UniProtKB/TrEMBL annotation:
This is Bcr/CflA family efflux transporter. Residues 9-399 form the Major facilitator superfamily (MFS) profile domain. Belongs to the major facilitator superfamily. Bcr/CmlA family. InterPro entries: Efflux_drug-R_Bcr/CmlA, MFS, MFS_dom, MFS_trans_sf, Tet-R_TetA/multi-R_MdtG-like. The gene is bcr_1. The lineage of its organism: Bacteria, Bacillati, Bacillota, Bacilli, Bacillales. It comes from Paenibacillus allorhizoplanae. It comes from the Bacteria. The keyword Transmembrane helix applies. NCBIfam families: efflux_Bcr_CflA. Its main location: membrane. It is found in: Cell membrane. CDD domains: MFS_MdfA_MDR_like.
Length: 400
C-alpha cells in the first residue's frame, strides 16, 4: 500500500473496528452491575445470568441473519437499521420493568449488535483480498480486540457515577454514535450487480455451498474452535486466579489485561509479516503453539503448580488465538467475495455457539481446580488442528 492508501486503511479499520467492539461492549459493560440488577428486580443471580445468555444467543443467531441481509441489500442499509434498533433496545433495557422484559430486550440488543461484527468483516472482504486483506484484518482486530479490555473498565466507571441503568444509557449513546458514523462516514462497498438474489431459498443454498467447501469449513472450524477456547479461559480464570491462587481483583485485572495485549500482539505479528510469511505458516504455527500451551496448563492444574507456571502458558495460548484468527480469516474469505456477508456470518457464529457450550464446563469440577480449563483448551486446540488437517490439508491433497 502507498502512504495515502495506508492512511485510508487505518481510518477505515478504526471505523470498522468500532463496530466490532459493539459485541464486547454489549456483553461486558453490564457485568459489574449484576448484583444491582438482582436487588432491583428482587430476582436470582441465575435469572440475571440468563440475560447474558440471551444476549450471546442474539449475537450468534443475528450474525447469520445479518450476513445474509447484507449480501442481498448491501452493507449500509442493514447496518443503519440495526444501529437504530440497537439504540431502541438499549433504552428498553434501561427502562425494563421486570427481569423477563430485560432478558427479552437483551436478546434483541445482541441480535442487532451482531450486524456491527459481521458487516464490518464483510466490508473488509469487499475492499481487500490476499495479503492486503490479512494486513487490513490485523488492523481491524487491533481496534476490535480493545473492546474486551476496555468494556469492563468502562462499565465499572459508569457504575461509580450512576446505577446499572446508566450502563444501558451509555450503550444507547454508543449506538447513536455508530448510527451517525454509518450515515455520514461509511460508503456502500457492495455494488448492486454483486448482490445476492432476494430469495430465502437462495440464502440457504449459499450457506449450504459454504459448508460443502472443505477448505472454507476447515478454516472456519479451526478459527471458531480456537476462539471457543478463549471463552473457557474468560469463564475460568476469574475463579482460578482468585479462589485457587488468592490474587486480588486488581492483580487479576492486570493478569487478564496483559493477556489481552498478547492477543493484539499475535494478530499484529501476522499483519506485519503478511508479505514475507504465508498465512498458512502462521495458522499452523498458532495451532501448534496453542496445543503446547494447553498441555502445559493441564499439567499445572494436575500437579498444582505455582501461579507463574500457569500464567506463562496462558499468555502463549491467548497469543496463539490472535495468530490463528488473523491468519484463518483471509484464507477462508479469499474465494468468497460473492457472498462475503454469509461467509463472515458463519465464521462469526461458530465461536459464540461453541463458546456457549464450553464456558459452563470450566466449573464442572468446582471452583478450586484448574484441570477442567486445561482439558477444555487442550480439546479445543486438538479439534482445531484436526479441522485443519482433515478438511484443509486433506482437501488440497484430494484436488492434487
Amino acid at each position: 500500500m502507498t502512504n495515502k492508501n495506508n492512511q485510508h486503511a487505518v481510518r477505515l479499520a478504526l471505523l470498522l473496528g468500532l463496530f466490532s467492539t459493539l459485541g464486547p461492549f454489549t456483553i461486558d459493560m453490564y457485568l459489574p452491575a449484576f448484583p444491582q440488577i438482582v436487588e432491583k428486580f428482587g430476582t436470582t443471580a441465575s435469572l440475571v445470568q440468563l440475560s447474558l445468555t440471551a444476549c450471546l444467543l442474539g449475537l450468534g443467531v443475528g450474525q447469520v441473519v445479518m450476513g445474509s441481509l447484507s449480501d442481498v441489500y448491501g452493507r449500509r442499509k442493514p447496518l443503519l437499521i440495526s444501529m437504530a434498533l440497537y439504540v431502541v433496545a438499549s433504552i428498553a433495557c434501561a427502562i425494563a420493568p421486570s427481569i423477563w422484559l430485560l432478558i427479552f430486550a437483551r436478546l434483541v440488543q445482541g441480535f442487532v449488535a451482531s450486524a456491527g461484527i459481521v458487516i464490518s468483516r464483510a466490508i473488509a472482504r469487499d475492499m481487500f483480498s490476499g495479503h492486503e486483506l490479512t494486513k487490513f484484518f490485523s488492523l481491524l482486530l487491533l481496534v476490535g480486540n480493545l473492546g474486551p479490555l476496555v468494556a469492563p473498565v468502562a462499565g465499572s466507571g459508569v457504575l461509580s457515577l450512576t446505577s446499572w441503568v446508566g450502563v444501558f444509557v451509555a450503550l444507547a449513546l454508543l449506538g447513536m454514535f455508530l448510527l451517525a458514523m454509518t450515515k455520514w462516514s461509511l460508503k456502500e462497498t457492495l455494488p448492486i450487480e454483486r448482490r445476492s438474489p432476494s430469495n430465502f431459498a437462495q440464502q440457504l443454498r449459499n450457506y449450504g455451498s459454504l459448508l460443502r467447501d472443505r477448505s472454507f469449513t476447515g478454516y472456519m472450524l479451526a478459527q471458531g474452535v480456537m476462539i471457543a477456547g478463549v471463552f473457557a479461559y474468560v469463564s475460568g480464570t476469574p475463579f482460578i486466579y482468585q479462589n485457587i491462587y488468592g490474587v486480588s481483583p486488581t492483580v487479576f485485572a492486570l493478569l487478564f489485561g496483559s493477556n489481552g495485549i498478547t492477543l493484539i500482539i499475535g494478530s499484529q505479528l501476522v499483519g506485519r509479516m503478511a508479505h514475507r510469511v504465508s498465512e498458512q505458516f502462521f495458522l499452523l504455527f498458532g495451532l501448534y503453539m496453542a496445543g503446547a500451551a494447553s498441555i502445559a496448563v493441564l499439567l499445572v492444574g494436575i500437579f498444582h503448580g505455582p501461579l507463574y507456571a500457569l500464567v506463562i502458558p496462558l499468555v502463549f495460548f491467548v497469543a496463539s488465538i490472535g495468530i490463528t484468527s488473523t491468519a484463518a480469516f483471509p484464507l477462508a474469505m479469499e474465494s468468497q467475495g460473492h457472498m462475503a456477508g454469509s461467509a463472515a456470518a458463519l465464521m462469526g457464529v461458530i465461536p459464540f455457539l461453541l463458546g456457549a457450550v464450553v464456558s459452563p464446563l470450566v466449573g464442572i469440577a468446582g471452583e478450586h481446580t484448574a484441570v477442567p480449563l486445561g482439558v477444555i483448551i487442550l480439546t479445543t486446540s486438538a479439534a482445531a488442528m484436526l479441522s485443519y488437517f482433515l478438511l484443509v490439508k486433506k482437501g488440497v491433497k484430494a484436488k492434487a
